[in-house]
Recover the amino acids of this structure.
């Protein structure tokens, strides 16, 4: 069966979003590491002026990274790109399956025109992002040959293709991400508790003169850094939302054997795409996105 190639708008938006996400995460990771190292250096009990200088340099670098985040706003590029990519992806699947608003009752030319109209609407809503993409967006097709070919499949072939290539893959992605976030959440909480305990132990040992190195500020800084990382990555929220969506998609998939005609299939696809869209809409809302696609 033909492999689906998505529109250029999806490919470029997805690529730009992934790059912006990595930049945002790495910049924040760098800031936290610099703050921890600076705290460690400043905790060394010595009159050596180099210690103060090194600690100050590290703080200045962390400040510069913070300014970079504020000026270039990679998180906005990340969120906008993700919103555009997910919208284009959902439209693509509705187009090739012939479900609303691209019903098979429409002529091929009318369906393609309606798809282009919807993609143009996305561009109009996110002009800043497409200015960022620039000439990259002009390369490639918005309606690919594979999209046209897959739209011509008969009903049973489309049911099988959508169930395996869209619904099952998306369900597995949510399930795997839920497990991954649960693991990271537990590790983060474990680290926070560990460093809080070590901070208390260090304070007691330092009070009684057992150690000659003040580690309490370092342990407290490490605990705070993991708290910040936990909030940044939103492990707990994503564990729940991804898990719920994976379960919902699994329930929807169980209805596949009840599809008897195109009307049933249209409702089936609509339920699945609504569930996926709902999760992503909530994902954007939690990140204070200014515009949400439906």
């Amino acid at each position: 069966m033909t492999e689906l190639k998505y529109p250029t708008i999806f490919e470029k938006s997805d690529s730009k979003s992934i790059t912006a996400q990595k930049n945002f995460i790495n910049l924040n990771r760098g800031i936290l590491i610099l703050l921890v190292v600076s705290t460690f250096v400043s905790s060394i009990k010595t009159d050596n002026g180099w210690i103060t200088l090194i600690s100050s340099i590290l703080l200045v670098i962390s400040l510069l990274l913070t300014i970079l985040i504020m000026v270039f706003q990679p998180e906005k590029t990340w969120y906008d790109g993700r919103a555009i990519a997910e919208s284009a992806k959902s439209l693509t699947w509705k187009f090739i399956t012939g479900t609303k608003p691209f019903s098979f009752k429409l002529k091929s030319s009318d369906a393609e025109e309606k798809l282009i109209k919807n993609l143009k609407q996305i561009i109009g809503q996110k002009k800043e992002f497409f200015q960022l993409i620039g000439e990259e967006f002009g390369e490639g097709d918005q309606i690919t040959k594979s999209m046209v070919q897959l739209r011509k499949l008969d009903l049973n072939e489309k049911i099988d293709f959508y169930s395996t290539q869209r619904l099952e893959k998306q369900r597995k992605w949510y399930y795997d991400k839920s497990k991954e976030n649960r693991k990271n959440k537990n590790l983060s909480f474990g680290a926070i508790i560990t460093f809080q305990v070590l901070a208390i132990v260090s304070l007691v040992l330092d009070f009684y003169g057992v150690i000659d190195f003040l580690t309490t500020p370092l342990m407290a800084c490490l605990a705070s850094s993991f708290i910040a990382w936990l909030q940044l990555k939103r492990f707990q929220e994503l564990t729940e939302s991804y898990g719920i969506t994976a379960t919902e998609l699994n329930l929807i998939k169980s209805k596949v054997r009840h599809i008897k005609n195109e009307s049933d299939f249209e409702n089936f696809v609509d339920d699945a795409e609504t569930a996926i869209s709902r999760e992503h809409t909530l994902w954007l809302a939690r990140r204070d996105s200014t515009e949400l696609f439906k």
About this structure: The longest helix spans residues 155-207. DSSP finds ten helices and no strands in the chain.
